[in-house]
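Example 3.2
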Amino acid sequence: MAKKKVTTVKEHLRKVPVSKKNPAGMTIVDKHPRRLKGTYLDAKEIDETFKNYYKKKIVYPSSNKLVKDYPDSDKYDDLIAVWTDYFNNKFPSESLLDPDVVKALIGSESDFRLDPFNPLAIGIAQITKETFKALQDPKGEVKEFIFTKFAQKDLKEPIYAIPMAIRWLFRKKRLARGKLGREPNSEEIILEYKGLLRSTTGYKDRALKKFRETYDKLKK
């Protein structure tokens, strides 16, 4: 598990423009905490990471399996592959997250549409406002690795929504592992993502139906 990386910046001098108020051209910066690079992602870091990522040896989701039903289904394979690999390296465990799980989840949530109408969730990954808030909370449940400086409208951009959804899946994977006492399988991760891992109702199967169908097609 990636460790939270926060350091305290000590009180120090900083150069500033010379002025009547500050003829010496120096000011004192107070002590303050600073989150180190590598424990958060902002838009610039996401853009640069994706652009420069070494893609030759990463695992891609299955292609040409869903295009009959979803013409745009392979359009986001690069994003899914890069960010699944990225977070598999950030949060190593006994079993790696399968990029087909991510692709099937996106398909089951949005049919690969950029912004399906849903008053409760936003964008291709259908991230809720509550999840979006948690992903950016430096004191919240994903505080060891957060996103920063994003607005809700950014969830309509797959380049930002997909890494956020994958980060959230890793959080749910960890929670499922704790509840089960072992590594969860793909369906158990999705059930925890949907808040249904320990549900005893028949709604579990209904909630998984579209994910199962999509995932099975990817694995044929």
